[in-house]
């Protein structure tokens, strides 16, 4: 275990402007650091980091406490003061720790686990990096939402899947993609991003937010009869997803953004619900050529930021809403054939 205050001082990261074949690590992505540092600062009592992995370029000596039994596995690791410590895995954690310490030096007495390897050269360090990351798989966003008890939007989204008849039993809670034969209509991650865009900038307490999101999606549901047909077993989930796009992540995200605009303009529930009625006139079928280049690219639904914006623009026009300057720019580029 190593005190955090020592991490930036003794653990080096290969940050020189060297070509990839001469480095033992990938280039540091500085854009990740503020969020990682904020995570430490916002959760000083229960943040969780996995161990750093470091190579020691120097002679190490381990002195065990005893010769027999388990005692021989416990002792002191002696490393020369002039030894060089190179981070093999955890360079972003190291940099985030350094950033957090600048804002809150008291964190310096906290500790983090470190696994030491003897440095036997660049080839070995590169192989360690490859081995450590070879089988690393980022978990699906849905299961991250399911297990996240800090994120308010995750809590709201989970509550919605339990309380709303629209979503209860029809949301895939672990995977972020649905197989062709899945009986689910939505993924938890898609609903999460839909709620995130819906509540953007609205200062609401958790109970208020849950009530509002449930009311909003129920209003949307009345304009999309196919959702109710699946619940009533008149249409299978597979058929609905195959023939329509309104249960896909891009549609939920776009509907959330449009809903956010309505909520900002119309505080009263009856007013913004009334303005959602024109959604019944939208042709949500995949065969609608209007979706090509907006929500569908090359026959596949696209969730890129630009395609979400183009889908939002399409819905805004149906609801009689003005486009923002950024939305207008994206729309103009699309109409010129540049999108």
UniProtKB/TrEMBL annotation:
It holds the Pfam family DndB. InterPro entries: DGQHR-contain_dom (IPR017601), DNA_S_mod_DndB (IPR017642). Signal peptide: none annotated. This is DNA modification (ATPase). It comes from Streptomyces avermitilis (strain ATCC 31267 / DSM 46492 / JCM 5070 / NBRC 14893 / NCIMB 12804 / NRRL 8165 / MA-4680). The lineage of its organism: Bacteria, Bacillati, Actinomycetota, Actinomycetes, Kitasatosporales.
